[in-house]
Amino acid sequence: MEEAFNRVVQHIFNNWTALKLAVEYSESGCNPKEVVNDFINYTTQYCLYESNVEPDGIQEALDDILDQEFDTICEDGSTKEIALLLYRFVDLLKQGNTQMFEEEYQKLPIGAMSSSKSIKSQNEDMSEVCEANTSEPNIEKTSEIPMEEDSEWTEVKSRRRR
């Protein structure tokens, strides 16, 4: 049961655009692939062994891990979409309906699970600041962003373009 569900979680996470973007833009000091593997294993354990698991609890766990491990908040609804999908598979397994479980697994899409239009990452926000500062050539722009001492943000200074 655990192996089959883990396979589903891997498939879903490997096709989840928001997670791919979070990994790509992450500046965490550890290996992001290892963090994703831990995320998959944690999600599998949580869904299968947490008492009274519900879609809202799964979504909250997904949101928490994305925020803590990747400094990312998804505003595109993808964590809810993923949570509902995972719950559906957990429910099928708990009912013992392995045939329907396999049929649903075969129907899972390959590719992006969500459009991820409004993913918010601290790193992405800083990229937007950098792009804004370099959008007009031959004009010097300065951007003074007050920084708190214990902020997790990285200060990006503009430079003069020739």
Write up what this structure looks like.
There is one protein chain. By secondary structure, the protein is mainly alpha-helical. The protein has one domain (2-119). Helix content is 59%, strand content 4%. It is built from 7 helices and 2 strands; from the N terminus they run H-H-H-H-E-H-H-E-H. The protein has helices spanning 2-14, 17-25, 32-49, 55-70, 78-95, 98-107, 122-133, and strands spanning 72-74, 119-121. Strands 1-2 form a two-stranded antiparallel sheet. Helix 1 packs across helix 3, helix 1 runs antiparallel to helix 5 (78-95) and helix 4 crosses helix 5. The chain is globular, with a radius of gyration of 20 Å. Residues 114-148 have low confidence and may be disordered.
What's the arrangement of secondary structure elements?
Layout lengths: L1 H13 L2 H9 L6 H18 L5 H16 L1 E3 L3 H18 L2 H10 L11 E3 H12 L29
Antiparallel strand pairs: 1-2
